[in-house]
Structures are given as structure tokens and as C-alpha cells.
Amino acid sequence: MFATTPLRIVAVSAGLSQPSSTRLLADRLAAAARERLAAEQDRNVEVQVVEVRDLAVDIAHHLLSGFPSAALREAIDAVTEADGLIAVTPVFTASYSGLFKSFFDLIDNTSLTGKPVVIAATGGTARHSLVLEHALRPLFAYLRAVTVPTSVYAASEDWGSSGDAYTEGLPSRIRRAGGELASAVLGRTVSGASRAPGLDDGEDAVVPVEQQLADLRLD
């Protein structure tokens, strides 16, 4: 019997402005994951974006009263029930935004156990890119989620940049992160694996750790 339930990708965007580069990055990551999932299996793929900006008042009320509004409850349920999660925040004072953190403070620390997550952030300068490692990755480790190896930081100068001989451009990093999320959603090895060319997946094929060890023994 073939599964007919759609795969659900939920992107949480904590941008404050409209239009927002944070929302744009969330949309592009979601599109990359959906494209890879659609290419590699037969189930429909649904994408939902949670705009935390629209829930700011509801989040404050919930923190004070302990009772979520219907809209906030729906957003929390979407995040906890997703097959894969994308979390994108603007950088404020060298960390994630307070609104972003307040939203995830409302999620039970066991509700994301084992869920694959792409973490991403936007900022005005590349100097804040380590926010992904010192703030976002520990947050989702505490929530027991599984963050994919590639995180994506987009500084102002990254938009429209194709990179150079030493660094990948933003579009390449988005495609790689989306592909890793898709692989994790489908239950394939991502963490602890290297990437090498494959017959079906091109440059994004995943080589399991066991195969890497076998190759080393052959050498």
C-alpha cells in the first residue's frame, strides 16, 4: 500500500519588515527542499510558512496567561507535526531575535525530538554568521531536533552573489541545505556523511559512514 499523506515542510520566518529578506530566505529554502523531495519520491509535498511577526501579540499573551490563541495553537501544531522544519531569524545583537526565541519557548522541549531542521539567519554583515553555531544550533539541540549539517547565513551582499573560487554563493548553499533536509525527511543519512558524485544524485549523493570506512580499508 502506497503512502498518500503529503509530506509537510514548515518554514518559520521571524522577519519583522515587509518585504523581508528573512522571509525570502525561508521561501527559497522551502522551495529547494520541496524540489528535491518531489524529484525523489511520489508523495505530494506541502509547504507552510509561519510568519512569527503576525503572532507577536498572541505570543506575548500566551507567555503571560499560558493560554494560546487559535492562530498560535495552529502555528505550534504545524511546527510540531511537520516532517521537516526550516527556521530563519534575523540577527539582533549578535543572536536570534527575541520574537524568534519567544515563539520556540512555547514549544515543549520534546515535541521536536528527531525532527530534521535547517537553521538559517539573515543580517547586514557577514561578521554575524557564527550566530548559526553559537545560538541557533544549541537551541535546537536543546529541543532535541536534528539540524542538518549545512546552515545558511545571508548577509546583505550575498543576495545576487554567485560566490568565488573559495566560497559557495548563496544559491548553492540554499540548494545544498534544502537537499540535506529532503534526505533527512526521507530517512537517509546526512550527519556524519560525506558528499560525492553519484549516478542518480550528481554531486549531492550521500555516502554513508560505513561505505567511507570500507573505502579507507581498501586504500
Q: In sequence order, what are the helices and strands, one letter per element?
A: EHEHHEEHEHEEHEEH
* Straight-line N-to-C gap: 43 Å
According to DSSP, the number of beta strands is 9
User: What ranges have pLDDT less than 50 throughout 5 or more consecutive residues?
Assistant: 191-219
The percentage helix is 40-55%
What would you say this structure looks like, in words?
There is one protein chain. By secondary structure, this protein is an alpha/beta fold. It is 40% helix and 20% strand. It is built from 7 helices and 9 strands, in the order E-H-E-H-H-E-E-H-E-H-E-E-H-E-E-H. The chain has helices at residues 21-40, 56-65, 70-81, 98-105, 131-142, 170-185, 209-218, and strands spanning 7-13, 45-51, 84-92, 95-96, 116-123, 146-147, 152-155, 194-195, 206-207. Strands 1, 2, 3, 4, 5, 6 and 7 form a 7-stranded mixed β-sheet that branches. The radius of gyration is 18 Å and the shape is globular. The N and C termini lie far apart (43 Å).
Task: Walk me through the topology.
Layout lengths: L6 E7 L7 H20 L4 E7 L4 H10 L4 H12 L2 E9 L2 E2 L1 H8 L10 E8 L7 H12 L3 E2 L4 E4 L14 H16 L8 E2 L10 E2 L1 H10 L1
Parallel strand pairs: 1-2, 1-3, 3-5, 5-6, 5-7
Antiparallel strand pairs: 3-4, 8-9
